[in-house]
Amino acid sequence: MTPDGATLDGAGLDPVVSPGPEGLPFWEGLRRGVLLLPRCEACRTFFFYPRALCPSCGSRRLTWEESSGRGTLYTFCMHFRSQVPGLQSATPFATCLVDLAEGPRVMGYLLGVPEDPELIECGVPVRRTPLETPGGQCLLAFRPV
Length: 145
Fold this sequence. Notes:
Order of helices and strands: HEEEEEEE
Mean pLDDT: 94
Radius of gyration: 16 Å
Strand content: 25-35%
Number of helices: 1
Shape: globular
Structural class: mainly beta
């Protein structure tokens, strides 16, 4: 548990990540400190999760572009227990869905918020923040602006 007044910092988060081939640029971008999103060259739509076809027009002409990392907190979930390997000792922690400025909704970890979910508001602006695990994996995380 965090002390009174403390905020969640992601300490202890160390999930096993095994990306598929379509998602490798995303994970490599996080290692470099940037959030990369797939974008269709035909219709110019950003999308997420990574896949071989554009979900808007079906084109295979895809590229990866850097996101601003800014968005709006859509929702969150506070985890007080976890049986997932690499997350058991990290509780409490929060996961979130964020509507990025570029359009896609992504899932990540929510940092810099109180442990009490009653004190967290949806709809607030957030920004991507670096989160490196003890095992050296970089994860997508956000904190309120």
